[in-house]
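This part of the workshop introduces the protein records we will be handling. To make this concrete, we reproduce a full record directly below.
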Amino acid sequence: MMKKIFLSTLVSSVLFSAMATASESNASMSSQEVSAHATEVATTNAKNNQVKLVQEAINSLKLSAKALADLNQNKPEEAKKDIELALGKLESILAVKDTPKLLPIENRMVVKNFIGSAKDVEAAIKEVRSMLDKGQVQEAGELLYSLQSEIDITVVSLPLVSYPDALKLASKYIIEEKPEKAKEVLKLALSTFTEVNQIIPIPLINTVELVAIASDIAKENKEQALKHLALASDELDKAEKLGYVSKSTTTYKELHTLINKVEKEIKGPNKAEKLFEELSAKLKEFKEKVLSSKKEEK
């Protein structure tokens, strides 16, 4: 549970800050500009809201690595001092009430943005299959790798449950003049991290932004609102074809149906407020649950 909790604030910020910009300055943008702006805002927010690293944990790791180097140079007393200092760096953390079990020591973010439309995705998948049929496995792999449109956030954390105990055990082995065992423990402590990966699909961020702005301008500018909804529908289609699967009970088909209803209402009496509200709520819930979280031990 903890592995997911410390990323929740970051992800929520990325997802919903893009929505907040919809009514501010984007009403005059073309659909393509809205989509590009939504991607840019989401990327910027992901950078600005990265999980705060715990500097004491980073310093403790450096000292542990130095202790291992000391042992390799046959300096057990120096190693013991470094381990004591490493444990001291953790004292302030351990003294805090409700200290998290994972201490973030590294953030990584990668943006992979497939620029094309849903039809472009279909064409690329068809080409991949053709390449595989011809035995062009490497070429197919390269093209398949390009079929991603997402913001990947990885937080590497130090497990507070096991790390301090490992340092204490290493110190014990040094006192007992068992340097090889102390080395083994330190190597293990320095290689046991937890990675939490969060994937934010860009097409869904774009869809939310397009729908939000379409809702704002539907009465004043029907034509542009319809263009926004058309691109929103294509972005949804692209997300589905790229394989971004949601755990939501809402389906891509239902979302497309709702967009179609809104479009018909705009073309007619244009009393689409409640339909927009329903669509936005469904998109929000769908998007929250499409976020995939995967833990990897290394």
